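[worker-b] picked up task from shared queue
[worker-b] task type: protein-ligand structure
[worker-b] ligand name resolved to fe (ii) ion; SMILES cross-checked against name lookup, match
[worker-b] sequence length check passed
[worker-b] input payload:
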Amino acid sequence: MNNIPSVDLSDFLSEDQGRKQSFVNHIGRAYEDIGFVSLKNHFLDDELVEDLYREVKAFFDLPLDRKRQYEDPEIAGQRGYVSFGKEHAKGKTQGDLKEFWHFGQEAAEDASLSETYPNNLLVKELPQFNDTGMQAYRMLEKTAIYVLRALALHIGLEETYFDSWVSGGNSILRPIHYPPIITEPDGAVRAGAHGDINLITLLMGASTGGLQVLRNDGEWIDAIPEADELVINVGDMLERLTNNRLRSTVHRVVNPPKEQWGTPRYSIPFFMHPRSDMPLNCLQECVDADHPKAYEDITAGEFLSQRLAEIGLKK
Ligand SMILES: O=C(O)CCC(=O)C(=O)O
Ligand SMILES: [Fe+2]
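[worker-b] inference finished, payload out:
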């Protein structure tokens, strides 16, 4: 992809310290500038992506009353189905033109966590749906851990600083369906301009274009990964933790031109979250006289609750 810097995970995994350091420098610089990279040689293979899209499309093709069996407002949309128009960007009231599903962490080996996380919902109409989703979840989680290791080194922390906070973390895999646009959207968009809530987001190629990123100079630029790349961006939790050193860049999904309204769009972001008890207090490595502490202390769980209320998922 030419708009966004590209990095290769095999450099970070290499025995060659020069290649490893070069990956750290490149991703660090990109996240201090545009806040997005595209990543090659991650752990998610094409076949799994293909299987996942097949399952996801089959799910969204189910009749609405079937899908709504899996919608539970009690859990603030954190698992299962969230129906069309429910979520909106922070600061907006108009709902996005999308419906989505959430797969969440299964921390069976850690009772203190499994009690706090809602259970994933099993789609009984589609026997492969849950397994396929959770396989992709694991591969994206594994990829994200290495990206966070590189960022820890860039910031001047121990390489494994994030490992224990993201192990059993509250991450979410979100298959999204943007249906064909049938009537004049009247100002509504597929996804309004927003920063992501979490630490980092990993996005496999979508079924069509539409994702745009707000560059420093105020221009919206297209972010369309090559087939073998993941787009990975910084979210608000990491921006806050690093006292604005790493940038959570605003992005959106625009409506297509009218002649393409009939084409639906599918996209599957993975939101890497830490455990809810992780403090997001600005790191001392990122605070100095030129960069005074910009945020109050807060935990990841408290921050998430605030934001779920602000985007219409939590009462
Ligand atoms: O659909 C996309 O390509 C991106 C969606 C997105 O930014 C989000 O759900 O946070
Ligand atoms: Fe996003």
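[worker-b] attaching auto-annotations
[worker-b] The chain has nine helices and 14 strands.
[worker-b] releasing lock
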